[in-house]
């Protein structure tokens, strides 16, 4: 069964799926791993994503961007006035409610923020169904940590109406930690992790305390006046100056030309995240003149150098809020599409030299990956003929474990996986390597007061895996859910075989 993680950001959305022991981002119909949160209304259809973003130059008054910023706002909110100054779409008051007024299929139409978000979620559902089959899809939503209950309810309602079955709503920092299994595999010590997110229009720093597989927010600081778009604007300004120098003209007052150059600058910035140089080319940019410029990463870095202090200042602020020093941070996660330029990661790593950077997942996919892992744990396992459970003894009926959960590693020896009194929810991983001549294995799971006494231990479940490659490595993931159920998944890495079981709470 597939379980999805949804991250709906201000500028883009990402969808990840957990299936058969693996978590991957699902590409949309264009092959892109992230989808711009842009909705355009035309004479014939409603367009979502990259096509809507590309068409904003000629259809600006009917294109809605950055709708997440206005979620839950009323017309008298200062954010609405600020939004109206930078957006071409008309924002109107309808009985005190905020509405977007557009021309759709030849007629005037009005949509509220939830309507726009639902349209984007429907696009994400199409992507999910292409991977998980038709019908309603189970998913976990990741939202900003400062979302109130009303905003959480609004996004949940929009996703539900779009066709998702929302299992849970979690915060983005928690999802970021889950993406890397922080604190879930080894729960023997507590530590602090800093999550820095640089989105398109905002950035935030959050310090998370991790202990016994549990996450607690120690401090968080956010700034909605600075984001990755500022880096794009700096590059756009440089390119505009270069174009004016080449053509001896002045294009700054031509909105269409400025918008075209802005899109080109954004593409150039993304290319420079992975390449040393990038070509910025715009046909007929202004007054019939084409523009071509070969931008180097070194030049881009020098342009953006003054912006980096904004990133580190926010981190310094959250350290003060948590009353801790740089040396207290053990792990560092940098996420968000705006954090893709290497210079951003370098500046933050230099600022926190003793923190271990977790960077095995692309920055703009981290939160969706973590949400998908949470969704998989909530969906539970699927039993097969290779799994047997003692229904009378396999009960884990507490918010914490009354007994240790162990795996049998020899005829007389147990190894503790989840210690006694582990708090729910918590997770841990166990790795077993088979002998070179061994191709079958029976994994026996016990609960016990004393791991040294196998004879007094209680068998919870037995998972049998057959026809494995000799010398296989089996990774067993144990998850004690919030409700008290114990979910176990065993995954053989080479053959990709997987067995799982859920030991129910009575």
TrEMBL record:
Family (UniProt): Belongs to the heat shock protein 70 family.
Matches recorded under InterPro entries: ATPase_NBD, HSP70_peptide-bd_sf, Hsp_70_fam, HSPA14_NBD
Subcellular location(s) of the protein: Cytoplasm, Cytosol
UniProt keyword annotation of ATP-binding present: yes
Protein name: Heat shock 70 kDa protein 14
Recorded GO CC terms: cytosol
Domain of life: Eukaryota
Record-level Gene Ontology MF annotations: ATP binding; ATP-dependent protein folding chaperone
UniProt organism field: Elysia crispata
Statement: the UniProt record of this protein carries the keyword Nucleotide-binding: yes
Keywords for this protein: ATP-binding, Chaperone, Cytoplasm, Nucleotide-binding
């Amino acid at each position: 069964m597939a379980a999805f993680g949804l991250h709906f950001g201000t500028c883009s959305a990402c969808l990840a799926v957990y299936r058969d022991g693996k978590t991957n981002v699902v590409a949309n119909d264009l092959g892109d791993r992230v989808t711009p949160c842009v909705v355009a209304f035309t004479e014939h259809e409603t367009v979502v994503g990259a096509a809507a973003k590309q068409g904003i130059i000629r259809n600006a008054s009917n294109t809605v961007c950055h709708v997440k910023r206005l979620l839950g706002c009323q017309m008298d909110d200062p954010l609405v006035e600020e939004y109206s100054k930078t957006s071409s779409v008309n924002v109107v008051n309808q009985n005190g409610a905020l509405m977007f007024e557009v021309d759709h299929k030849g007629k005037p139409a009005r949509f509220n923020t939830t309507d726009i978000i639902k349209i984007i979620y429907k696009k994400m559902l199409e992507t999910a169904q292409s991977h998980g089959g038709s019908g309603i899809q189970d998913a976990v939503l990741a939202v900003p940590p400062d979302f109130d209950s009303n905003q959480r309810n609004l996004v949940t309602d929009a996703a539900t109406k779009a066709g998702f079955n929302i299992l849970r709503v979690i915060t983005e920092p928690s999802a970021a930690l889950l993406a890397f299994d922080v604190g879930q595999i080894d729960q023997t010590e507590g530590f602090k992790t800093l999550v820095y997110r640089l989105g398109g229009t905002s950035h935030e720093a959050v310090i998370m305390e991790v202990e016994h597989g549990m996450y607690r927010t120690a401090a968080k600081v956010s700034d909605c006046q600075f984001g990755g778009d500022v880096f794009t604007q700096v590059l756009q300004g440089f390119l505009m100056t270069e174009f004016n120098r080449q053509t001896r003209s002045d294009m700054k007052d031509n909105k269409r030309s400025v918008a075209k150059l802005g899109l080109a600058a954004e593409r150039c910035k993304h290319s420079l995240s992975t390449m040393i140089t990038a070509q910025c080319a715009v046909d007929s940019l202004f007054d019939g003149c084409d523009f071509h410029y070969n931008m180097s990463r070194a030049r881009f870095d020098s342009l953006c150098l003054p912006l980096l202090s904004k990133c580190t200042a926010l981190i310094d602020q959250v350290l003060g809020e948590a009353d801790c020093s740089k040396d207290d941070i053990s792990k560092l996660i940098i996420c968000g599409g705006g954090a893709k330029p290497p210079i951003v990661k370098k500046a933050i790593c230099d600022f926190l030299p003793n923190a271990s950077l977790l960077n095995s997942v692309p920055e703009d996919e981290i939160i969706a990956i973590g949400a998908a892992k949470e969704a998989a744990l909530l969906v539970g396992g699927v039993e097969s003929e290779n799994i047997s459970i003692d229904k009378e003894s396999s009960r884990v009926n507490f918010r914490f474990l009354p007994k240790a959960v162990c795996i049998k590693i020899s005829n007389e020896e147990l190894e503790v996986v989840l210690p006694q009194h582990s708090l729910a929810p918590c997770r841990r991983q166990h790795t077993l390597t088979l002998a070179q001549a061994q191709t079958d294995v029976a994994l026996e799971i016990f609960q016990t007061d004393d791991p040294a006494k196998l004879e007094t231990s209680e068998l919870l479940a037995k998972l049998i895996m057959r026809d494995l490659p000799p010398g296989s490595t089996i990774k067993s993931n144990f998850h004690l859910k919030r409700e008290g159920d114990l979910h176990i998944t065993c995954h053989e890495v080479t053959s990709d075989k997987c067995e799982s079981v859920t030991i129910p709470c009575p």
